[in-house]
Amino acid sequence: MAYPVAKNVSITFATSLLSSGATAIGALVVANTLGARGAGLFTLARVVPTVAAGLLGAGITIANPYFIGRRRHSVQRIAETNMLLGLVLGLVGLGGWILAGPLLMTSFYRHVAAWPVMVLGISVPVLLVRNYLNAIQQGLQAFRGANLVLFVEDLGGMMLVLPLLWMSSADGTAERLVLLAPLAGAAVSLIVAVADLTRRGIRLLPRVRRALVVEMLRFGIKGYLARIANMLSWRLDIMILSTLGSAEAVGYYAVATKVAETVRPLSGSLNFVLRPLFASLPAGEARTHGIRLLRSSCAVNLLAVAALWLACGIVVDRLFGSEFAPAIPACRILLVGLLGFGVDGVLTGFYVGTGRPELNAYAAVVGLVITLAGDLTLISRYGLMGAAVTSAVAYTAKALALGAIFVAFTTPRAEARPATGVSRQAA
């Protein structure tokens, strides 16, 4: 098992780096041609529909790898159910986007024509269905195809903003291109996902299967709650810092988190690969392999964190300039907390794969409570350093909670002695 896991994690990790590189190139092109406003629009065109699709997803992307790995239902039945849920929830999201149009125009997409913003709303159902199909690929352990789907989204978005290098931005065409490029990238990725699953003989037609819908939603929502808690834990620090701290502190902290989170995709890659793998194994065998993978994951993560801890001063100085020197100590504090991510990727995948996604929610709530209490207490007094310390403690506490839950729920209990042995001792 070790070689396939290492191979698939390496593919997933490399793809995440390539995707980040494509996104960075696209953002650089937009920033150099349209300035800060264009860069902001490009980011919002990607982030807002992605968040909307994630919130509407109801945890089905978490349920798919488990149900397929466990072979509780045929892949065809799961795919049909996914298409039904994706279309229904996607249309709900599109309707909500249209109704929220005035708010979107005033809050996010200011001084932009209304029609491209409305068209951008199509990204919500496109991303929702794409995410579901990508999770089916994950459940099938078709990681090459699954990673290709994610990569072509970012690559497509990057390719579509390259014309900005030679076109005029005076007539507003450039801004419309920036808004619609992420939609085109999402559409291309959906086409690639449909093509891959169709090639595997899966018919992507919606069909009502009420019992399966209820079963998948019950499972998925448990993991969905953990995802929401984790998202809040990761982003509350900068939101509270922006309210209680200075703009400069937010800038320094943004750089610190960006550099420190370079090691984060390793944990995400493990989670992505291990969920369907654990789901396909008996409980005892899954636990044995989980312990082995924990040792390897913690060792690799330790080396990555230690290397970045030593190099982060040079990285910040070379990439952002000496004026961002205050970000360096905050980055090193965050990296200490990220040592816990050697545990995170394996155990979050283990709990989903063994049918207990709610255990991830319990650990995530521990981190969220510490984040909220620590940020409100320390940021007003210590600024970005208070935010960094709080986040490091929250990451560590969550990792410890994941480990404690693993020991409490998976350690084999001592079996009662055989009756014959007891009788002999009594005699």
Molecular structure report:
- This protein has helices at 2-56, 60-70, 75-99, 101-107, 114-120, 123-139, 143-161, 173-199, 210-244, 247-260, 264-279, 283-320, 327-337, 341-353, 358-382, 384-410, 419-426.
- By secondary structure, it is mostly helical.
- Helices cover 83% and strands 0% of the residues.
- It is built from 17 helices and no strands.
List keywords for this structure.
427 residues; disordered C terminus; mainly alpha
Summarize the structure.
The protein is an all-alpha fold. 83% of the residues lie in helices and 0% in strands. The longest helix is centred in the N-terminal third of the chain and has 55 residues, at 2-56.
User: Which range does the strand content fall in?
Assistant: under 5%
**Residue ranges: pLDDT <50 for 5 or more in a row?**
415-427
Please report the number of helical segments: 17
Helix content: over 70%
Radius of gyration based on Cα positions: 23 Å
What's the mean pLDDT score?
84
By helix and strand content, what is the structural category? mainly alpha
Most strands sheet: none
Total number of beta strands: 0
List the secondary-structure elements in sequence, H or E: HHHHHHHHHHHHHHHHH
Write the layout of secondary structure elements.
Elements: H1 2-56, H2 60-70, H3 75-99, H4 101-107, H5 114-120, H6 123-139, H7 143-161, H8 173-199, H9 210-244, H10 247-260, H11 264-279, H12 283-320, H13 327-337, H14 341-353, H15 358-382, H16 384-410, H17 419-426
